[in-house]
Amino acid sequence: MGLALSFTMVALFAVGIFGTTMYNLVAHRMERMMSESSGQLLDQTATNLETYLKGMRRVSDTMYYSVIKDKDLAVDSMAQEMNLLYDVNKENLISIACYTGDGELVEAVPLSAEKTGLDVTRQQWFTKAVNQMENFHFSTPHVQNLFDDPSYRYYWVISLSRAVELTTNGSAKLGVLLVDMNYSSMEQLLEKANTGTDSEYLYLMDADGEIIYHPKQKLIYAGLYEENNMETANWDDGSHKEYFHGEKRLVTVKTVSYTGWKIVSVMPMSVLNVGMYETRVLFVLVLLLTMMIIIILNQLVSSSIAHPLEKLNDSVKEWEAGNMSPDIYIGGLTEVEHLGRTLKSTVEQIRKLMEDVLMEQEEKRKSELDALQSQINPHFLYNTLESITWMIEGERYEDAVFMISQLASLFRISLSKGKTIIRIEDEVKHAQNYMNIQKIRYKNSFQVDFQIADEIKDCCTVKLIIQPLLENAIYYGVEGMDDEGEIHVTGYRDGDDVCIEVRDNGLGMSEEMVEKLLTDNNHVPKHGSGVGVINVHNRIRIRFGEGYGLEIESEPDEGTLVRIRLPYIPYSADIQEYLDGRRLERSGGAADEKN
């Protein structure tokens, strides 16, 4: 399951990254295409506008070079040629007029009656022409207000003005030629380009940012709509992105030749988003379909890999749980099958090695135990028999009989029919027999008492572990204390453990001596039986494990306490045979081996 999920997550992540990248590429491509489309529209509109303006320039050039330059105003009239030129171009013209540099009208068609009080020298088209002697000047749209029209009609025009040279009586003087173009002709040309939505449009402005044409021009004049034309006037030709009134827009600029005018295309990015909606839907559907296919394929592929691995993992878990002969799964792909065969071979080899190690350890434990038990010195027996001899010679027959009976009981328990594990009750009785003999030998020069809880008397113990501690308590504790020596033997249960304590009020030991007593063979007592505390400690650990053995507490002149710690294991024949044969691995009523 984990393998299938991992494969699926990685695949879905890769598909998601790929889909997102492709969508961004398509979105950028569509944005570029729309930008190019706007540029093409602007190019075509600019070409049409330039063609229109070139026609007006030709009218101005024809009027100047073919009429004005050939006339001497003192003797010639230009009315006939001017009327003829107007008639040919009247669809796009409102009027043609020629003024002197002082603002005096020379000739005008189709109307020639100037309005009263008119001063053309103050009008922008006139001053621009005079100041820009060798250039054309195109004005912004305005109402033609130079002549009285009997029909009272007024026209919106764009004035094309230029400085000309007028000849009178052979002398040249400054003049201004004015051609008023019909604004509606150019408006119609631009309106043809604005065939899109209200939010997508183009407009025309001069080099200073003044709007010449805008599809919402009336709203702009009324203050109900705003355009970012003043900032756009500073932009170079090409596509730009802007935020205007909280809306992101794609703005494309194209400069019209000869005039400095700029055609501006405005396209809100929301239009692009609307255009991308179907693309997004298509991408999402394709992405979802691809993900479904990948999930299905991953499930099929991963199951062919994961299922055999899961079975193999179950076999390993069974092995970890303690089954040393698990049924190792062999199957699946070639690699998984090879892994199963290798694991099965490894398990068999490990099991065989463990069996060999266990056999070697058991042999070693038996050898160590035999070696430790063989260390018991017959010195105690010699001394006891010598004491019995003295009693008989002194005719102390009852004491001699008591000593013999105690010695017999002591050896009977010591032998225990070759058993190593006996009841605590028998071990305590052995210790009592030993102390009864020692008390007689030492003429009751010390006191001893046993306080053993009934609940532990029927528990298992290694034999001959209390007697060596009592022997050390006599030789190194209370010997020579002149009837003031005390030895207390206490047994009780401590949780899953059994504790037997041997306490004396003798000389005690230093902390350094206590630390070395259970680790350094050089500190094993050599008096008495010669078994010593380290012997007892090692025999307990060999049989029950590292967590058991002796604990020693002592201070100089404060006495010594030696605590035997054993597992709480009720005695039975089966348990005794098992413990005599190998270390205990506790379960059920027996406590687990401590580490």
Give a verbal description of the structure.
The chain crosses the membrane at residues 6-26, 281-301. Residues 524-531 and 582-595 have low confidence and may be disordered. This protein has three domains: 1-306, PAS domain (Beta-Lactamase); 324-367; 375-581, Heat Shock Protein 90 (2-Layer Sandwich), CATH 3.30.565.10. The chain has helices spanning 2-67, 79-89, 124-131, 183-193, 217-221, 229-232, 269-320, 334-373, 379-393, 397-415, 424-441, 467-478, 511-517, 532-544, 573-581; strands at 93-100, 105-109, 137-138, 142-143, 156-168, 171-182, 201-205, 211-213, 238-244, 247-255, 262-268, 421-423, 446-452, 460-462, 485-494, 497-504, 549-555, 559-567. The longest helix is centred in the N-terminal third of the chain and has 66 residues, at 2-67. α1 packs antiparallel against α7. The strands form four sheets. Strands 1, 2, 3, 4, 5 and 6 form a six-stranded antiparallel β-sheet that branches. Strands 8-7-11-10-9 form a five-stranded antiparallel β-sheet. The protein contains 15 helices and 18 strands. It is α+β, with helices and mostly antiparallel strands and 595 residues long.
Helices and strands in order, then pairings?
Layout: H1 2-67, H2 79-89, E1 93-100, E2 105-109, H3 124-131, E3 137-138, E4 142-143, E5 156-168, E6 171-182, H4 183-193, E7 201-205, E8 211-213, H5 217-221, H6 229-232, E9 238-244, E10 247-255, E11 262-268, H7 269-320, H8 334-373, H9 379-393, H10 397-415, E12 421-423, H11 424-441, E13 446-452, E14 460-462, H12 467-478, E15 485-494, E16 497-504, H13 511-517, H14 532-544, E17 549-555, E18 559-567, H15 573-581
Parallel strand pairs: 13-15
Antiparallel strand pairs: 1-2, 1-6, 3-5, 4-5, 5-6, 7-8, 7-11, 9-10, 10-11, 12-14, 15-16, 16-18, 17-18
Helix pairs in contact: 1-2, 1-4, 1-7, 7-8, 8-14, 9-10, 10-11
